[in-house]
Specification:
The complex is a heterodimer of chains A (about 180) and B (about 240). Chain A has about 180 residues and is mainly α. Chain A has 9 helices and no strands. Classes of the chains: A mainly alpha (about 180), B alpha+beta (about 240).
C-alpha cells in the first residue's frame, strides 16, 4: 500500500482528522518552512508564519478543490501569502543586500529545479522567453517577496521601468501559458 | 483611488497577477482580497495566476523547521483542556506499541539486582528493538534505570558533547516530563518516587540532547530509546 497522497490527506483534514494534519505537516513542513524562509530570512519569523499557515490549513481545508487538485501548490500559496502579509506588516524591512538573492547562479539553479514537474516545464519554457532582468524581477518578487522598490534597487533601474517590465512580463507569461 | 471592482480585462488581470506575485502593497492587496470575495471574476483571475505561477514556490530551498514547531501548531489549534483527557498522538502510540512488543519478548528476563520485587518495569529499546535499558519501579515508587546488557554493565552513551535525558510520558499527557539527565558511564540511575509518579502504561523515553540537557524543558533531539511501564506479576498472585 502506498501512502495516501496529499489530496486525500487534505480531504481528511477537511473532515477534522487531526492525524491527517499531522501527516501533512510531517510530509510538507520542510518544504513549506523553506518557502517562508526564502521570503523572511529569519527562522523565528518563518516559524510563526508556518504555524499560522497550519492553523489556516486546518480551517480552510474544506475550501481546497480536490477536483482541480494541486495540493502542494495550495499549501505553498497559503504559506507564501502568510509570509507576504508578515513582511508587509513589518514594512518590508527585510535586508535585501543578501548576496545570495537574485544572482545569476541562483536563477540558473532555480530554473533547473523548476524542470522536475511536467507542469513546471511549461512555466520554465515561458520564463526563459522573458528578457533576463524581467525574469529575475519576477523571481525575486515571487520567491523572495521583494517589493517593486527593492527590485528596482537591486537591478539598478528606475522604479517606473521595473513596474512596467514586471507587468509586461506577467502578460507575456499569461500569453505563453495560455 | 481606483475601485478595483470596476476594473475588467487586462487591467484586472494585471493587478491580479501582481497580487499573486506579491508586489502589491498592503492596502492594494487587501482591496484585491475584498474584490475576490465579492466578484467571482476577480476570484477566477487570481486563481488562474496561482495556477500559472504556483510552481515557482518550489524554487525556495527546503529547510527543516525548528523541532518544536509541530507542538506549537497543536497548542494553537487545540489548547490542552483543563482536565487531562487527551489521547496521546499516534506519534507516541507507535513507540508504545514497539516497546510493549519488546517487553513481551523479554518477559521474565532478570537484568538488575533488586532489593524488592519491582512493581512495574519497562524495557527501553532503540528503533531496531534491541533492548538497551531496563527501567524498574520499586515498591517505594522510585525508578531504577540500568543497561539491559548486564547488571551494572556498560551503558549506551550519548554522542560526544551531547547528553542523554530521561523523560516520562503518562497516558493522557501530551508532553513528556524530564526525569533527569543521565550522567555519562554511571551504573544505575535512580529517580525518586516524588519525581516519577509512576503509572501503568507510562512511556519512558530517552532523548539525545545538548550537553547538560534540553534547554527548553521538552525533548529537542531524537528519542533514542523508549519503553512502556507495565505491571510485573507479583509472586503472591500466582
Amino acid at each position: 500500500m502506498s501512502e495516501p497522497d496529499l489530496n486525500t490527506l487534505l480531504s481528511r483534514v477537511a473532515q477534522g482528522e487531526r492525524d491527517a494534519l499531522r501527516a501533512v505537516y510531517v510530509r510538507q513542513s520542510t518544504r513549506l518552512f523553506g518557502v517562508a524562509m526564502a521570503i523572511l530570512r529569519d527562522r523565528s519569523a518563518a516559524a510563526d508564519v508556518v504555524q499560522t499557515s497550519f492553523v489556516r490549513i486546518w480551517q480552510r481545508a474544506a475550501q481546497f478543490d480536490v477536483a482541480r487538485g494541486d495540493a502542494a501548490g495550495w499549501l505553498g500559496g497559503i504559506v507564501r501569502h502568510a509570509a507576504l502579509d508578515a513582511i508587509r506588516r513589518r514594512g518590508r524591512e527585510i535586508p535585501t543586500d543578501d548576496p545570495n538573492l537574485g544572482d545569476g547562479e541562483y536563477a540558473a539553479d532555480a530554473l533547473t529545479r523548476l524542470e522536475t514537474a511536467e507542469d513546471n516545464a511549461r512555466l520554465r519554457a515561458c520564463l526563459e522567453q522573458l528578457e533576463g532582468r524581467n525574469r529575475e524581477g519576477i523571481l525575486l518578487a515571487f520567491v523572495h517577496g521583494l517589493s517593486h522598490p527593492q527590485i528596482a534597487d537591486r537591478l539598478g533601474e528606475p522604479l517606473g521601468t521595473v513596474k512596467s517590465w514586471i507587468r509586461r512580463g506577467l502578460l507575456s507569461l499569461r500569453a505563453c501559458m495560455a | 483611488m481606483t475601485n478595483f471592482l470596476s476594473l475588467t480585462g487586462d487591467e484586472r488581470d494585471v493587478i491580479a497577477g501582481e497580487y499573486v506575485l506579491g508586489t502589491l502593497d498592503q492596502h492594494s492587496s487587501e482591496q484585491v482580497e475584498a474584490a475576490m470575495a465579492r466578484d467571482p471574476n476577480w476570484a477566477a483571475a487570481v486563481a488562474a495566476w496561482e495556477a500559472r505561477l504556483g510552481g515557482l514556490v518550489d524554487l525556495a530551498p527546503p529547510e527543516a523547521p525548528p523541532p518544536q514547531l509541530w507542538t506549537e501548531v497543536e497548542a494553537a489549534l487545540w489548547p490542552p483542556p483543563a482536565a487531562p483527557a487527551r489521547k496521546p498522538s499516534r506519534f507516541w502510540q507507535s513507540w508504545a506499541i514497539g516497546a510493549s512488543l519488546a517487553a513481551a519478548a523479554l518477559a521474565g528476563l532478570a537484568v538488575m539486582p533488586r532489593q524488592t520485587a519491582p512493581q512495574m518495569q519497562a524495557v527501553l529499546v532503540a528503533d531496531a528493538n534491541q533492548p538497551a535499558f531496563m527501567a524498574q519501579v520499586d515498591a517505594a515508587g522510585g525508578l531504577q534505570l540500568a543497561a539491559a546488557t548486564s547488571a551494572g554493565g556498560v551503558r549506551p552513551n550519548a554522542a560526544e558533547g551531547r547528553s542523554l535525558q530521561l523523560w516520562g510520558l503518562p497516558p493522557g499527557a501530551t508532553t513528556p516530563r524530564s526525569l533527569g539527565v543521565l550522567p555519562r558511564d554511571a551504573g544505575i540511575f535512580h529517580v525518586a518516587s516524588g519525581q516519577l509518579h509512576a503509572v501503568p502504561d507510562m512511556l519512558i523515553l530517552i532523548s539525545q540532547e545538548p550537553e547538560g540537557g534540553s534547554p527548553t524543558g521538552l525533548p529537542t533531539g531524537p528519542v533514542v530509546f523508549y519503553g512502556r511501564l507495565v505491571a510485573v506479576p507479583q509472586p503472591g498472585h500466582w
